[in-house]
Specification:
By secondary structure, this protein is of the alpha/beta class. 29% of the residues lie in helices and 25% in strands. It has a domain of 108 residues: 3-Layer(aba) Sandwich (Cytidine Deaminase, domain 2). Helix 5 runs parallel beside helix 6. GO terms for molecular function: dCMP deaminase activity; zinc ion binding. This is Cytidine/deoxycytidylate deaminase family protein.
Length: 173
């Protein structure tokens, strides 16, 4: 009887899977985001987006939406954007709950491309690489330019398929 051997996942897929699993802890009805910190092949921390500890989250208290206006991609008309301010982003939580020494030269795997605010924080955190899956076109150009200026490898994990039941499908965050 021949045994079939399961295909071993590469390290990028393995760590991105863990980021997606961390995202399942999120209670945000708009989007679940997870992040992991890796030094070499050692997992140093996980985080997800959500309300501060001990505070009712969006699923309990509702989203705390603010409206902002920002220029369109082509620099034309202003676009109204809604965002929740109750939630701490996964990348922010990751930085809050890991040590600076552990972050030096490390890699962050995050389910979604970091927004501008998170990108600024990551650029100053000591990490040397950011790997993401879902694209965020609104901030891509300026985030990519920042990472290039800082010498941080910034790449999308092409061809990646998240584990089943780990993505919020109808979010708009």
């Amino acid at each position: 009887m021949a045994q079939t051997q399961a295909v071993r996942k590469d390290w990028d897929t393995y760590f991105m899977d863990i980021a997606f699993m961390a995202s399942t802890r999120s209670r945000c009805p708009r989007r679940h985001v997870g992040a992991v910190l890796v030094q070499g092949k050692k997992l140093l921390g996980t985080a997800y987006n959500g309300a501060p500890m001990g505070v009712p989250d969006c699923s309990e208290a509702g989203c705390m939406i603010v409206e902002e206006f920002e220029p369109s991609q082509d620099g034309g008309a202003m676009i109204k954007k809604q965002r929740c301010i109750r939630t701490i982003h996964a990348e922010q939580n990751l930085l809050l709950f890991t040590d600076r020494n552990d972050r030096e030269g490390s890699t962050v795997y995050v389910t979604d491309q970091p927004c501008w605010t998170c990108a600024n924080m990551l650029a100053n955190s000591g990490v040397s690489e950011i790997v993401y899956h879902r694209f965020y076109p609104k901030d891509y150009e300026k985030v990519a330019a920042l990472m290039q200026q800082r010498g941080i490898v910034f790449r999308r994990l092409e061809g990646y398929v998240p584990p089943p039941d780990t993505e919020v499908q109808d979010g708009s965050a």
